[in-house]
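Re: [ENG-882] Designed sequences occasionally contain unexpected residues at chain ends

Forwarding the minimal case from QA. Structure tokens:
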């Protein structure tokens, strides 16, 4: 179907008085179907109204074209009616006369009686019959806006454009007008584009929501499909299963844009010092006990010691924030789940390969699978018991939480389920949830369990809402937990900075591994800038026995390992296993050129240089084969495709060569 409105790769550049220029919009492409209601949302200055004005013909794009019903928009006209926030009514005319003025001008080909009928029809449509003879001064704000909407619709435009039409109204009036507008648009099959700052308004009214990134050079950051059926009622929409997920998606996007704006505002030119290409870094982390090396490197001065004396730690609520920060280029580096660098490289994010490298494994272990306490009462102490419970259960679906598709939490949880004969996509439902939300969701009953890093397993046990059914020490002793991740082009642009960053964090890992520092590190990690929780929930080694006080089974706590034999050097065997698991569950294809991917993702040389310069080469960094709890042994010289084919529970995986662009080094 041909688009009714087509915004074809437009740019908008404004000339400045000093002779410079300001790029307001860059590469905007959008297709709108006839009868569709589209909302544009984003922070002030992102170009929402500029885009609306170009669709209206009030302004022209610097590059590209805007088409309406196949014709290029070159000027404003009655086929594109705009409703502004300030009503734009003539104060000396009545309601009827304001509408009649537009109808008489545009629909002059109709008879006088027909035009009068159109006017009366639209006065009735917006419920203003008792006020038809009043001038605007005698109307409320909501009534004035209804006149503006009636006037716009009365001339039968092809396209209705609304620039924050309800922004100046009180909540009750706004809600009533929103429902009237929806009804009018549905009954008359109106095609509409609306600029709004109101998240709930966008979800209520729209078929699709277009989210614009910050300016300058604003782009479309995402488009949400609103799958809530019509007709819609304000008080009923909130009960739809998609409502809060859509709302959360928009709020997440807007919050991220706000954070990006703050980071860019304080981020000046690249600062080079101490022989390093860059010393002012933004490093992302997620509040988990495993963030200890990042926190310690900052608090104990290891970043500054190695020349990185302008490091800002950016606390993200979820791993998605880390992905967006690395992909958007506003994070220089980040704490990542061990599978994230290869997941990004293989195109896990938006199906676009983003070469990402790791040169340091910061933690091993530290994860566990927690189930709701009700399952312990039913005798569930293993995956086999859990499968029995699923077969006997009368509940329709059991939901388990994990933190990100690329995380070891997801891969370990799936492996544990599949080894017990449970298909993780068909027998249960897996849901991505931020780590800090896990305990609250388990307590509320919206999930039945989860796999996550500490302190959230320990906290669930201590608060009596869950129990640890399996630790990672049981599933895969010594698995990689969190790694340092940077974009490949960043590593190429700042090689000395990259080595200095690895040195600072490797020294922090060494510090974290010393039992003499445990209490100090617990206080740092539990602090407001990091996990922001009670110190009772933060443990680096085996905690007191009360955390495993269930009669059966007695579990060893899933403690973190920060440094030691084979701990910190990136392992290509482990990365290869991760590739097989991502392909097994359909997250990414298995790369036919997997040797190239391993070579690019695991930058062992950078680690070796850092360890040598720190004098920490006395440990053996070889990991050897992977040994899993079901007796499987995975070696680096195994045939990965034969291994995938041997798995009983899996998705239909694909094998393809992953083409990675050779991008120029980033210099900003």
């Amino acid at each position: 179907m041909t688009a009714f409105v087509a915004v074809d790769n437009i740019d908008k550049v404004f000339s400045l008085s000093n002779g410079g220029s300001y790029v307001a919009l860059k590469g905007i492409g959008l297709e709108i179907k006839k009868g569709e209601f589209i909302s544009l949302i984003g922070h002030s200055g992102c170009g929402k109204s500029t885009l609306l004005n170009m669709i209206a013909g009030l302004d022209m794009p610097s590059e590209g074209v805007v088409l309406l019903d196949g014709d290029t928009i070159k000027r404003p006209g009655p086929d594109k009616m705009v409703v502004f926030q300030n009503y734009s009514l003539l104060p000396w005319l009545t309601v009827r006369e304001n509408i009649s003025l537009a109808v008489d001008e545009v629909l002059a080909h109709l008879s006088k009686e027909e035009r009068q009928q159109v006017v009366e029809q639209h006065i009735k449509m917006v419920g203003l019959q008792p006020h038809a003879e009043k001038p605007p001064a005698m109307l409320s704000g909501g009534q004035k806006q209804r006149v503006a909407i009636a006037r716009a619709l009365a001339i039968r435009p092809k396209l209705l454009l609304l620039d924050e039409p309800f922004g100046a109204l009180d909540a009750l009036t706004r809600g009533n007008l929103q429902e009237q507008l929806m009804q009018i648009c549905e009954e008359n099959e109106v095609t509409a584009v609306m600029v709004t700052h109101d998240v709930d308004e966008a979800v209520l009214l729209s078929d699709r929501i277009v989210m614009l990134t910050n300016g300058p050079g604003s782009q479309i950051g995402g488009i949400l499909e609103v799958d809530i059926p019509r007709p819609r009622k304000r008080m009923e929409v909130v009960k739809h299963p998609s409502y809060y997920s859509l709302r959360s998606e928009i709020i997440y996007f807007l919050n991220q844009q706000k954070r990006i704006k703050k980071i860019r505002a304080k981020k000046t030119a690249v600062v080079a010092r101490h022989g390093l290409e860059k010393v002012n870094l933004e490093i992302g982390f997620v509040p988990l006990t495993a963030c200890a090396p990042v926190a310690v490197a900052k608090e104990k001065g290891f970043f500054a010691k190695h020349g990185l004396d302008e490091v800002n730690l950016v606390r993200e609520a979820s791993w998605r924030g880390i992905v967006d920060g690395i992909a958007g280029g506003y994070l220089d580096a980040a704490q990542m789940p061990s599978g994230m660098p290869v997941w990004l490289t293989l195109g896990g994010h938006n199906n676009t390969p983003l070469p990402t490298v790791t040169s340091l494994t910061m933690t091993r272990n530290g994860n566990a699978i927690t189930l709701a306490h009700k399952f312990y009462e039913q005798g569930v102490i293993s995956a086999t018991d859990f499968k029995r419970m699923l077969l006997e259960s009368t509940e329709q679906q059991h939901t388990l939480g994990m933190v990100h598709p690329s995380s070891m939490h997801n891969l370990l949880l799936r492996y544990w389920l599949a080894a017990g004969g449970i298909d993780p996509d068909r027998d249960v439902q897996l849901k991505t949830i931020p780590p800090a939300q896990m305990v609250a969701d388990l307590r509320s009953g919206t999930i039945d369990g989860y796999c996550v890093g500490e302190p959230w397993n320990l906290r669930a046990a201590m608060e009596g809402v869950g129990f640890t059914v399996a630790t990672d020490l049981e599933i895969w002793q010594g698995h990689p937990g969190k790694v340092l991740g940077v974009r490949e082009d960043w590593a190429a642009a700042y090689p000395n900075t990259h080595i200095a960053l690895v040195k600072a964090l490797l020294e922090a890992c060494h510090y974290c591994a010393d039992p003499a520092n445990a209490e100090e590190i617990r206080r740092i990690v539990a602090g407001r800038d990091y996990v922001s929780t009670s110190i009772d929930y933060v443990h680096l080694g085996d905690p007191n026995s009360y955390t495993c006080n269930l009669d059966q089974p007695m579990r060893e706590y899933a403690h973190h390992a920060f440094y030691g034999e084979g701990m910190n050097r990136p392992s290509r065997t482990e990365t290869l296993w991760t590739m097989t698991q991502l392909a097994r569950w359909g997250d990414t294809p298995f790369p036919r050129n997997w040797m190239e991917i391993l070579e690019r993702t695991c930058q062992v040389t950078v680690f070796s240089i850092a360890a040598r310069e720190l004098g920490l080469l006395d440990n053996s960094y070889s990991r050897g084969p992977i040994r899993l709890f079901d007796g499987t042994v995975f070696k680096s010289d195994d045939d990965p495709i034969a291994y995938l084919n041997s798995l009983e529970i899996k998705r239909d995986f694909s094998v393809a060569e992953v083409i990675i662009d050779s991008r120029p080094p980033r210099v900003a």
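QA comment: On inspection the terminal residues look reasonable. The two ends are 42 Å apart (CA to CA). Proposing we downgrade this to a documentation issue.
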